[in-house]
Amino acid sequence: MAKVKRQNIREIITKRFILFFVVVIMLFVILVFNLYKIVFINGDTLRNDVFNTYVKERSVDATRGNIYSDDGSLLATSLPKYRLGLDPSVYNRNATSEQKFKEHIDELANALANFFQDHTAEEYKNKIVSAKKNGKNYLLLNNRLLDYQERKKVAKFPLFNLGEATKSGIVFDKVNVRYAPFGQMAYRTVGYLKDKVAVGIEGSFNAELKGTPGKGLFEKMDKNTWRPVEGGEESVPKPGLDIYTTLDINIQDIVETALMKAMTTYEGDYGVVIVMETATGEIKAISNLSKNANSLTGYSESFNYAIREARDPGSVFKLPSMMAMLEEADLPLDMPVSTGNGKYHHYNGTMSDSHPMGTISVAQVIESSSNVGTMVLMKKVFASKPAKFYDYLKKYHLIESLHFQIQPNPRPNFPVPAKWDAFQLLWSSVGYSTQYSPLQLISFYNAIANNGYWVQPIIVSKATRADEVVIDYRASQVRDQAPLCSPKTLAKIQSMLEGVVTKGTANNIKGTSYGIAGKTGTAQRIINGRYIPGKYYTSFIGYFPVKKPKYTILVSIDNPQGHAEATYARQVTAPVFKEISDNIYLRDMKLHRKLAGTLPDSLNKASLSHTVHPMDQTILYSNFGLPKVEEDGSWLQFKMDKQLVQNTPLSFPAKTVPNVIGMNLRDALFTLENRGLKVKANGLGTVVSQSVPAGSPTRKNLLLQIQLQ
Questions:
Q1: pTM > 0.90: yes or no
Q2: Which residues contact 440 (CB under 8 A, 6 or more apart)?
Q3: φ and ψ of 431, to 5 deg
């Protein structure tokens, strides 16, 4: 019985073994078949899949073009930055590389820890050793971007200093980063490309700046890192065009300083300044400051209000209304206009003047900024033909978009005559029930300064590649061939604008040697569809010098606060205009006059030699009776010998130390500090020596000593 049982157990074991053996053989056959299928049948397909996953043809960005100011100063450029990577596999190639690795890995880890200051030397060592052990051929050591000088320093670290990458393992992944040499200057206007948001010149001229991408093969190293495959580049990127703006960095600095000072003083919600060159329509400066988000203090550029924000313009719009009325009815400037008690009632609306004026002249309607006077005249001239007023505004470029180079710049919000009633006609004539951007308004005022000729504002003059002008944007700039109005009307308008400053609402900025003409504007702000008393949008638009305008300037500040009396343009924006115009006048030597001619008999025995700043010449010719002559824009070597006065223009080459010998202390400081030099002065009188010779190269914060006697 026992023998039978043992025989049955043996048979069972034998059968199970045979079954197991058969299963193993079958699995082996299946495995061999699948290997054959993978290698010989599907091999090409699978290899292509892997290649496409880990080696891909990717776009190679072109070097982005630079953005320059009008004098060639860099406003934006692309600088190469580098991420530091490592190919640990090079240390596994032979006994020599293994030995080098063991000798210097600790030194390398210490160098990396000291340089980046984010991990310990032990952590860097473990990261590298682990990658080497696992056979990785790429390791991102740190995500921080290095500049070129830092790259040179890192390349001297132990192991990295072995020379070519095949020995050292060092990998620098190049990344082009946009850099603004002047920091936040004109930040919103120059613009940026960030998180798929494109603004300013960077955004509007992206097609020109970005160039043509190339194509190349890249190997995937980890989740977010791709490295170029040597020799795999199929097409070379074509660099973008360089863009030259019309911005003047010196005027831009003046504008930003003055606007920041005003915003801090009056605590406005936002402020705008635009400086336009009268004859050319070129924007020389543009600044937008608004309160920092989520902060109770501080201002920065976060939105281009100058171009994109439209508001009721207020009293500055009385000027196009007046121009249209003068053209249509030839109103005499001394014609009386009754404003009664300073209130104008129409249906359910009432418009008031700042105070009762009684009977005033047509000229005083603008000079005193009378809402009632403007409405009385508007009803007299255009009540029966409102479409005619609309036609005038269209001629003045106040209906359609400016098609400015920075996009978007929407058209003004002004209803067509078919939707008008008398209320709309009268209220729009004084700057209400319409919306205009600051740029649209300054363009109209600039035409008045430009002898009546309207020119389209422009902020980019050309696009170049090397020295070749590829696109000349001035060639497509719109310039009216006929003036906006007759010479007679223009003379009246210019007279009224000058009167605003000499005897009207802006007489607090009169008395300059060069003269200012302009118009104040104070409009009630709309909040939730309602005009709110005590909340104002203030502005001043004008030009200077008054007799031969070179610059037109707009200053606007929204919702000024902080000072109970400072709610009107007279107190808020007009002084900012004057501060800007004063500083531009002092800087722009071509606005000043040159001395030449014969001395009066009282000085016919005098002899003098002096370096003269052009602004001092007014004092000389007024006090000494010297004749006025034109000036070419240079500093002058003033020489007076007996009856003869001679002037020799002086020039100071860029990036060199100027010659200040012969200057007074103020002029010497002005000249040297504008070159970024630090100055130490000794003595009184005029400069007789300087510690660094004229013509020497300048460098930032160079200390220069001057001796006066």
A1: no
A2: 397, 398, 402, 412
A3: 90, 25
